[in-house]
Amino acid sequence: MSYGSSASACRALLVRDFSLVWRRRGDALNPVLFAVMVVMLFPFALGPEAAVLARISAGTVLVALLLAGLLSLDALFRSDLEDGSLEQLVLSPHPLPLLLACKILVHWLTTALPLIVAAPVLGELLYLPRDVLPVLMAALALSTPLLSLIGAVCVALTVGMRRSGMLLALLVLPLYVPVLIFAAGACNAAQQGLPVLAPLLWLGAALALALVLAPLACAAALRISLS
Amino acid sequence: MNPLLLWFHKLGSPPYFYRFAGRLLPWLWGLALIGLVAGLYGGLVLAPADYQQSDAFRIIYVHVPSAWMSMFIYAFMAANGFVALVWRIKLSETLAMAAAPIGAAFTAICLATGSIWGKPMWGTWWTWDARLTSELVLLFLYLGVIGLYHAIEDRRQASRAAAFLALIGIVNLPIVHFSVKWWNTLHQGSTVKLFGPSLIDGRMLWPLLIMALATKFLFAASLLSRARVDLLELEAGKDWARQVALSGERA
Amino acid sequence: MSEFFHMGGYGSYVWSAMAIFIGVLALDAVAPLIKRRRVLRELRARVRRAQKRNEESV
Fold first, then answer.
1. Secondary structure (3-state) at B52
2. Per-residue model confidence as pLDDT tens digits over A54-90
3. Structure pTM?
4. Substitution target from C2, C5, C10, C35 for chain B, most B beta carbons within 10 A
5. A9 neighbors A99 (Cβ within 8 angstroms)
6. What is the C-alpha separation between A162 and A164, in angstroms, rounded?
7. B23, B41 in Cβ contact below 8 A?
8. Residues A221, A116: Cα–Cα separation, whole Å
9. CA B138 to chain CA mean position, Å
10. A50-73 and A113-125 helices cross at what angle (nearest 10)?
């Protein structure tokens, strides 16, 4: 029996996932709204003084986006698990890491990209200094794919669990901490006028590593969970 | 076949391991207790007071061995996890999962005693420097492994998933170890060295090394104790487990 | 002796650290013993149920 090439399989998977998201495109706004809510809580909690908020602005935006991304991680495999296509994916003759990389790509484009677009607005809500914004955007561009990749591995471990929300957070947050440290480090350096290249390069290196290793780890984790 | 190799293979069988561990346990507890008494006596009574920290430095005798154990146990857990994932050896799965709560206990002790030591010495209960933060992350990794293990129904699948998570988190271990070297930390650098002379007085060093040995025996004893119970639970349907339950043995 | 407990003024710190060390490790040592009792009890119940089933089917 002959089957198509891996490239056409990936294209088919990308088209399918995009179509599924497009049919529920309203839901794509939910993480953004959540992030806005979280950011709005801080002026209420800490007082509206501009100096205080500007000091914490970059870090708060990063944490808000991180949490919003965390909440949307569950959607990565949930619908596929429920209709049985996840097992078809695992059984397919095409390399599972490649297929999973495509799924993670679609997930990042549809959940993280709206958040990144919203980041300048969120920054404004907290009086983010103008010259920190480009560094924040660079840090987000490098760290959000990292978060999606690491998150995907942990979601693969908990796929199929009914009440996995808190457990997923517990699993994923220790692994998110180094990413957050470097992203926030870059933003804090920018805020203090120090060079920002080093932490951004670290993020880039970690991203390069994760792009290769995370799909492999995700595939292995999925095979364990579905065994 | 080489008798040592044969014995090693036999050890992988749950009933054989159960009996072997049962015979070892009293010795391990005994050695652990002796080591603890000797180490704590040496550290609390015999060792001279530090010229800078006076008697407060004696916390080192529980803080540092706990820190060493927190990392050693994680490496042990990850190694057994690797064996469990690659070769699916039941005993490795059990040992890896039994080690996790013990590792978490030592990590918690390290963080708590470190915090207590920090208050008089640094003037603060906590600081977000690289060593303390990475050790805290280590605690959360342990808790994540334990949480994942208990969340999955099938015990063998659960241990493999948790072992996989432990392997992913192994990257934190070199970060904890080298944190005082790579970053500017409040926590002091390494004084006890594996190769070359240590930067600590000999009269203060020997109780520390005894405590390190004693905590290893404690870990071994607790590990075997937990592994035996976990094996009984895992193999509940098997004959050997039934025999154990019916014989009503106490040991 | 009282100097031993005083620990150069740091007594409360040193002894609370020792207490945490001993306490947590004692808990860690006792926990499997408690679990063992439960597991053995359940195993014996399981054996009894299996025996009863065998007797009833004979």
1. coil
2. 999 999 999 999 999 999 998 899 888 988 999 999 9
3. 0.88
4. C10
5. yes
6. 6
7. no
8. 28
9. 12
10. 160
